[in-house]
Amino acid sequence: MEIFHYSAIDSTNTECFRKFDMGQRTPFAVIAKTQTQGRGQFDRVWYSADAGNLYISFGFIPHQSPQNFQNYSTIVAQKIADRLCQIFGLAFVVKSPNDICFNCKKLCGILTESRIANGRIVFAVTGIGLNIAGNLSKFPKALQSTATTVSDCCKKKVSYSAMKAVVIEVMEKLLLESDFMG
């Protein structure tokens, strides 16, 4: 899978759509240290100005009907939560439809968007925002009491590169071995 890295970008999901429109071969990923217009479900703002966290989107072509693809974000959330549980031995849980939490605090959000034509999905993007080791005191005040990081959950410093590798591994496996790809 080809991976594109950026220091800063408006949105990794938006960049995936731009790359697809320019003919980029799928699957691929876009990673940014920060986003200026990160977004979550229902166009909510996803705080992503902290370079200690992972902002990554995967562009791919699923071979599923829009109806069968509706739960994809939940599936991705469960796979990542399961992997984090295996690694750290902690109870990371999925808050449906697209969040991963620890002790009722959010540490990961997943947003899947798709382009549909003639009743079929021609392109999809799954964006993942994972709070790894960012400084929660720099988060907007409204998020400081509801957000957490993997490092805070584990009470130790967690490597950005290790968590990036975990998310890429989970997504590659999901994209290559699931019924969502043809």
Task: Characterize this entry briefly.
This protein is α+β, with helices and mostly antiparallel strands and 182 residues long.
Specify the biggest β-sheet.
Answer: 7 strands, mixed
Number of strands: 7
For the largest sheet, list the strands in their spatial order. 1-2-3-7-6-5-4
Oligomeric state as shown: single chain
Binned strand content? 25-35%
Compute the number of structural domains: 1
The proportion of residues forming helix, as a percent range, comes to: 25-40%
What is the CA-atom radius of gyration, in angstroms?
A: 15 Å
Under CATH, the homologous superfamily reads Bira Bifunctional Protein, Domain 2
Shape: globular
CA distance, first residue to last residue: 16 Å
Mean pLDDT: 89
Series of secondary-structure elements, N-terminal to C-terminal: EHEEHEEEEHHH
What is the highest CATH level, the class?
Alpha Beta
Structural class: alpha+beta
Q: What name does CATH use for the topology?
A: BirA Bifunctional Protein, domain 2
SS element count, helices: 5
The CATH architecture can be named as 2-Layer Sandwich
Which regions have little confidence, pLDDT < 50, spanning 5+ residues?
none
